[in-house]
Structures are given as structure tokens and as C-alpha cells.
Design goal:
Helix 1 runs parallel beside helix 13 and helix 6 packs across helix 7. This protein has a domain of 169 residues: Luciferase-like domain (TIM Barrel), CATH 3.20.20. By secondary structure, it is of the alpha/beta class.
């Protein structure tokens, strides 16, 4: 199993990039570079390409509404060149609050758009002249929609790879089905080994039944926070604020993807309570309402035998790569947790 982690640059990106160098030596295989509505991800990915040797540099994620399909393909090809073939293009829809509120673009048809974007990106990387008449993207632009001067073009440069891996962050049934059919990797949120089959099993099966047999099996990334040692269970509570934010306040009451997943995972009553409390402004109570059982199932925090047990459960549920966050008050502690996890994974 590969080990991946989301880059956190709250303390400064340059400092965090140096830590990635050390984590790479400790066994980290993939680093996800977030974007949201912070600094753009590609700039940071290019910076990491110059500072690392082995780790896969993945966007985690680039929202599909803020760039054209061709630009997404060009960006991935550029980073793949800078990193000598270590880029992974992570795509996702984000949410209407960010897309409409920050980018000023209508949030519509995410599944259909990602499907067409994947097709266009792979066309660009094969250096074919881009001609796509889809429902959401028309390239070149039809004459009645522009000047009529557009013509089919192909990428000038020769990419390092003509098939760069594409990861999709998806949650809903239709988007997960599309991911299993077309993508190279899946980046779910709120994944627990115990509930994965109930929440996503049917959607994954439908998508995999339509998957091109010539493509490698879908890589599934999931895991949780990592702290390996005795007496560390209290660290599970550190995830309460983020969980409460996502379950309770990420999106509108009527459209919160994370609340839906929490509900499907068997915590419907708690999901409603957390959302009610959070939206009422009582964030502390919302955090306290998150069940201890969920925190345990959604993490790799505990002694070595417990973490080994959870990694095995994730693997048996279909996870092929871990996506984790290393706990620690400094780089040395986080690196030690990476090394400890690497040893466990390598012996399973």
C-alpha cells in the first residue's frame, strides 16, 4: 500500500515543503497539494517538484469550474515534466459556496463535467488535435458561439507521459460510479472500513463493471490521522473541530455532502444534532456530539497492534493506498509516525 498525506502549509509553505523532503525519505509516497480558496495548488506543486525525488505530487484537489479542461491538462503535463513523471491530477467539484461565492461561476452538472474533462485531458496528453463536442464543453468553440476563428490544436510540447493519472474526489453515488468507471484513483472523504460497503459499495460496483479492462484497477485512498504508541487515544479528539465543521457547517443545511455521508455511515441521529448545534453557533457542543466510536474508526491512532488492525480492515474493505495525516508537535514527531506506519504497512 502506498502512503499519502495532505500538505498543510498553515505554518508557511516553504517550511512545509522542507518537511515533505524528510517525509519522503521516511516512506511517504504521495503528497496531496490542496487549493480550496487559498494559494493555487499548481505553484506549490511545481515548487515541490524541484525539492523532491520520488514522491508523487498530486493536486488535492483542483476544482473543475475554475479552469478550462485544456488548461487542466496543460498544467498537469507541465508539472509532470518538472517532476520527471511524478504528477497526479486530482479533480473535484468543490461546493457551491466556494465555486459561486469565490469564483463567481455557476455550480452545475459536476459529474457530467468531470466525465468530459477526463476525456479532454487524455486527448491533450496524447497530443491529438482537441475536438470535443460535449454537452458542457465544445472545443473548438462553435462558430455561432464565438468569432468562428477557432481551430483544432494539439499540445506543442511532448509530455513526459501520454496518460497522467487522474484522481477524483467524489462522494455521491453518481460521481463515485463515474470515478470507478473512468479515473485512476478515488479520494473519498469520511471513509471508514466498517461502513464503506454500505455507503459506496453499489456505486463502485456499477462503475467498475463499465471500466475499460485495459486500465489498471482503481486506486482507493483512505485512512485518517496517524499517531502510533501507547496512551495516545486522546489525540483522536483533535479531529473534532474539523469533523464538526464538515458535518455541521460545510455547505447549506439542505446541501451538505459530508453530513449525508455521516448519516449513511450509521450516524444519522448524530449528524442532525451536530448540524443543528453548529448552525446555531454552538461549535463546542457540536464537536462534543461526535461519537467516540466514529473517531476510533476514522483514525490510525493507538498502539501498534490497534493501528495494524485498522490498516488490515481498510485493506480488506478495498483501500489500496492510505491517505493520512501525521500527528506531532514538530517535524521529528510527524516523521517518526510516518516511519512507524511504513513499517506496519510493509509487513501486512
Amino acid at each position: 500500500m502506498r502512503i499519502s498525506s495532505l500538505l498543510s502549509y498553515a505554518d508557511g509553505f516553504k517550511e512545509t515543503a522542507k518537511e515533505v523532503q524528510v517525509l519522503e525519505k521516511a516512506g511517504l509516497d504521495v503528497v496531496w497539494v490542496p487549493e480550496a480558496y487559498s494559494f493555487d495548488a499548481p505553484s506549490a506543486m511545481g515548487y515541490l517538484a524541484s525539492m523532491t525525488d520520488r514522491v508523487t505530487i498530486a493536486s488535492g484537489i483542483l476544482p473543475i469550474y475554475s479552469r478550462t479542461p485544456s488548461l487542466l491538462a496543460m498544467t498537469a503535463a507541465g508539472i509532470d515534466y518538472l517532476s520527471d513523471g511524478r504528477c497526479m491530477l486530482g479533480l473535484g467539484a468543490s461546493g457551491p459556496q466556494v465555486i459561486e461565492g469565490f469564483h463567481g461561476v455557476p455550480y452545475e452538472a459536476p459529474v457530467g463535467r468531470i466525465r468530459e474533462i477526463i476525456e479532454i485531458c487524455r486527448m491533450v496528453w496524447r497530443r491529438e488535435r482537441v475536438q470535443h463536442l460535449g454537452r458542457y464543453y465544445q472545443i473548438p468553440l462553435p462558430q455561432n458561439l464565438g468569432t468562428g476563428l477557432g481551430k483544432p490544436l494539439k499540445l506543442i510540447n511532448h509530455p513526459v507521459r501520454n496518460d497522467i493519472p487522474i484522481a477524483v474526489a467524489s462522494l455521491g453515488d453518481n460521481s463515485v460510479e463515474m470515478t470507478a468507471e473512468l479515473a485512476d484513483a478515488w479520494l473519498p472523504a469520511f471513509y471508514t472500513a466498517d461502513a464503506a460497503k454500505v455507503v459506496w459499495g453499489q456505486a463502485l460496483a456499477r462503475g467498475q463493471a463499465k471500466r475499460d479492462p485495459n486500465r489498471a484497477p482503481l486506486e482507493i485512498f483512505a485512512g485518517g490521522g496517524v499517531a502510533i504508541g501507547k496512551g495516545l487515544e486522546h489525540l483522536r479528539n483533535l479531529s473534532r473541530p474539523q469533523l464538526a465543521l464538515y458535518v455541521g457547517g460545510m455547505g447549506a443545511r439542505s446541501k451538505n455532502f459530508y453530513n449525508d455521508i455521516f448519516t449513511k455511515s450509521g450516524y444519522g441521529r448524530e449528524a442532525k444534532i451536530i448540524q443543528d448545534l453548529y448552525l446555531a453557533g454552538d461549535k463546542n457542543a457540536a464537536e462534543a456530539a461526535i461519537p467516540d466510536e466514529y473517531l476510533a474508526r476514522n483514525s490510525l491512532i493507538g498502539d501498534e497492534s490497534y493501528v495494524r488492525e485498522r490498516v488490515i480492515a481498510l485493506k480488506e474493505s478495498g483501500v489500496t493506498a492510505l491517505n493520512v495525516g501525521f500527528f506531532g508537535s514538530n517535524t521529528a514527531e510527524r516523521v517518526a509516525n510516518c516511519e512507524a506506519l511504513r513499517k506496519i504497512v510493509d509487513t501486512i
